Amino acid sequence: MGSRDWIDLARDAETGIETLRAHFEGHAYDPHWHDSYLIGYTEIGVQQFNCRRRRHDSTAGQVFLVEPGEIHDGRAPIAGGFTYSMLYLQPDWLRRELRATFDDAPSDRDPGFHANLTEDPRLTLAIAQAFRVLHGRELRLLRQTALELVLERLRVHLGWREAKPFDPRLPLVAQKARDYLHAYFYQDIGLDELASACGTDRFRLNRAFKAAYGLPPYAYLVQLRLAKARQMLAVGGQPADLASALGFADQS
Question: Would I find Transcription regulation among this entry's keywords (predicted)?
Fold first, then answer.
């Protein structure tokens, strides 16, 4: 992070939703992914990112939407940087709440976003209100009411896709490797070990994994550990302890 960059992170204990407000100037973050649904809005500046093989430029008031597993990056293309607020919605929570709130929400499908970037002032306001009451740990009734409004405003931006344990569009070996990394992320996994667990060699695995997820296995593992660290920091974990437990050389 640059000297002018900052991050403010918290977690709602009841829902597991994480709230993040941040400011970046210049390079913000390398290609990475999350295991949550991200919904947020740009407060000031221009937030530029690549996702779904397209470049997006989110300006003040626009909403950005990213599904779990979608590779994206971030940068500030103009001086002064950008500031944004965001909610990390846990997939189980979102599926459960959508099905409880809307009668037409299918039970055998997963929610997905029509687009990564949209102009919807009512959704922007709903996200801002939810962020404020969740991040500020307001009364439970206020938090629940704000989240219900987010779901109502989010509905028009949602589609539904078939829920499958494996994505038929991706090589099976890549999906096996991903599952292995998630199961043993805290270990010092070698490429040969990973390839052996998936029944292939390291060269085929590397090619298949990068084609499927946009990152080589080692970079994916780093992002997975960072995601776990973020979750632990949000509930009061200490950087030194996390760095040691997750295999990072330092606390940065």
Answer: yes
